[in-house]
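Summary for the steering committee. The consortium agreed at its last meeting that each partner would contribute one worked example illustrating the joint modelling workflow. Our contribution is presented below. We chose a case with several input lines so that the handling of multiple components could be demonstrated. No manual editing was applied between input and output; the record is shown as generated.
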Amino acid sequence: MDLKGSLVDTNLRIFPSNSLLDYIKKLPINNDVPLNIARLVKGKSYEAKRKHDLDEEAKIPVHFNSTDIENLNKIKAITKIDDNTEEVVEKEETEVKPEEETVTVEKTEDKPTTPEKSEAKPVTPEKTEDTSTEEGSPSKDDSKEQSLEEMKIEEDEEEDLYLTTSDIDWLYIYLQNQRKKGTENVPYLNTLLEGSDVRIPKNQRIKRNPVLEARCVKLRAQQEAREYRKMTKSVDNVRLRFPEDSISYQMKQLNRQLIAIGQFLISIFAGFLFGFRGVEWMVGNLDFGFRLLLGVMCALVIALAEIYFLAKKLNEELNIPETVQLGGPPKFADGRHNNYEYEPRVSKKAIDKEHQD
Amino acid sequence: MSLGTAQDANAPSVAEANELLDKIVLKQLHLMEEKMRCELNIESSIKNGSIHLAKSRYIMGQSAVSTARLPTESSADFSASTVCETVEEDGIKQIKVIENDAENTVNPLRWFGVLVPQNMHKAQNIFQNTINFIVECVNVQVQLQTNLKYIGMLRQYINSVN
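What follows is the complete predicted structure of the assembly.
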């Protein structure tokens, strides 16, 4: 009965393959390197001293320029002459490939869940600036870890270092620059990324509150008991004639209907008076016959509307809530609250509600 | 690096193909994140709409707002009030929402009565908005799939040239 919380951060987690790791380890680590990459090289405790944000680099979107599209089309023409037939095969092929894309396809169906936050928050240089928070963070993680110990092996994976998309962006730009400088044997990003594991962040699982659960069970049991009593009323000699035959029930019924009829009459009379006298007071002297006609007309209109409500009111039955014990069979009642404690309260509530209606 | 010229003078070199592949892979990653954001949008708006629907159900009573009020197979036909259409931009297929101006559209609110609570109107608006999010999501998905195709194609190309 657990619920799934919604996603908190939408960053992909890229767990680098060994070849990528090897390459990254060769990079010169300076303050321009994103925190995650630096951490992969120098270990988890590495803190960068970067002042400026990565954002302006990270936000550069990759766009195809016209030559790219041209090249793409050329390649398309070369590799696939028969576009349609191969397309299907291609698609199936890639769908089976154990790569990042397959994860997206599955993602909508099942989002397994783990705690969202992890200590290796992508790019937060501000946080690293003062050392006190740095000291504080590991202990916080520890406590969190303890509280979520049942979260299986996934917890361990959480602890691993990963890259985010902005890091890959940076790597791409870095490789581009290297190539421009004319460095030999610069690997391509796609070969580097090959074999890397791309994971989708997972939803948080929200445990159902046990108090709520207990309450639901109790209420359901009460509801069922009420239905059962209603159902068995006609076969139980004791209750068979109970509310309907008592004088108080009859009197109450009578009262209700009399009041309803009284209200009906009063409003019609008031309507007639308005037509008969009120209009004259407003406009000035009127003929007696005309006044009478006006009064009758007003009364008629009001009577029409009132009849609807009268019919509704007379139609409904007076239901007296049962004052006897409600509540489920003893097996539903839990030890802490025993049945007799809360029942009177429940039935009183029902009576209150009756009057409000 | 210039092995590609063997096939065709015009054919792009391996380096170009590789760079292209880099770009597509990078774009793919961004698209995946974007898709997740879209899905979050959809989730939150559906949640909001459902809450409004539940409120109106509370106001009007359970039987007044229920599946029993929805049209069945035997009821009269009507056309969809919103339809989608596929357009092609820069070789990328995209889906666009357009309002259907056919005559026999119906307002779904009428199924639940003439004077429906304000919450119902709000729910309707929110759900109508959700269509836009969904279409956005579908567009991203389409792009993801085409990119997948391109990645496979480029791989094949690079392998064949090598």
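The first helix of chain A runs from residue 18 to 26. Chain A has two domains: 14-109+125-135+161-199, 210-356.
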